[in-house]
Amino acid sequence: MPMTPLDHSAAVATETARLVAAVQDADPATPVPTCPGWTLTDLVRHTGSVQRWFTVLLQQRVQEPPRSRDVDLRLPEQAEDYPAWLAEAAAQAGETFAATDLDAPMWAWGADQHARFWVRRMLCETLVHRADAELALGLKVDIDPALAADAVAEFLTNLPYAVFFAPGTANLRAENRTIRFTRTDGEDSWLVQLRPDGFALTTDTTPGAADATVSASAADLLLLLYGRLDRTSGGVAVSGDDDLLELWFANSAF
Q: Is the N or C terminus of the chain more exposed, i.e. has fewer CB atoms within 10 Å?
């Protein structure tokens, strides 16, 4: 059963709590290899800033691209205070979710022009960065398969709109070539078509041939798509046009 905006709202709180728990007693200066140049403090600051920024957008119910990103982030002075600061950001977001009609029309940079877009996007940001923290700390990364599959769908749906912060996506062009992403722990399958004028997730969910295929668990697919996992990793199976896959993975992660 597909996840709903209410599911996404609840999962933001859960994923934030898991991120806070991971970093609470860790050295804030710990490097985060999956986010080169970042420490755990940078990672938590980014996640909390994104949550606060999206919360403001929801509160304002913006109907056009905002002209400013000025938000009172209330950044803590001490690195050790960042986990509590992040938890506070999630609590404020939850209050805003509860007070908002998540099906209301609203500007968004992606495909879904409704308030619910921002809840789902916040969830995906928090989920991936929770995994970043756990990977940095040598902890097991455990992602609910249904949540991972929903995040894979969100990523592939919105990636064609992300060129303004993921400029490499402009290179995802080909003569009507297809890549199929299939989860091995469920029935979901996503077919992406690359055309001369761009690319997009298609509505074709019928299993069948593609120019290249990538198969893995939903969690591994998610980490792979976000560049947190390499396609040569165990548990990931690829076949077909290797040049097409190289084009995709060199230009799609953000």
A: N
pLDDT bin (cut points 50, 70, 90) of residue 205 is low
- CA 14/CA 44 separation, integer angstroms: 15
Distances in Å between the Cα of 63 and the Cα atoms of 104, 106, 145 are 11, 5, 34
Which whole number is the average pLDDT over 211-233? 97
Distances in Å between the Cα of 80 and the Cα atoms of 27, 75, 77, 127, 137 are: 8, 12, 9, 21, 16
What is the distance of C-alpha 174 from the center of its chain? 25
Residue with tokens 């609840």: 10
Q: Which residues have a Cβ under 8 Å from the Cβ of 172 and sit 6 or more positions away?
A: 194, 198, 199, 247, 248, 251, 252
Contacts of 4 (CB under 8 A, 6+ apart): none
Confidence bin at 209 (pLDDT 50/70/90): confident
Number of H helices, E strands in the chain: 7, 5
Domain ranges of the chain: 5-142, 165-251
CATH superfamily of 165-251: SCP2 sterol-binding domain (3.30.1050.10)
Joined tokens for residue 33: 């290899």
Q: How far apart are CA 180 and CA 212, in angstroms?
A: 6
Q: What is the topology classification, in CATH, of domain 5-142? A: Four Helix Bundle (Hemerythrin (Met), subunit A) (1.20.120)
The model's pTM is 0.96
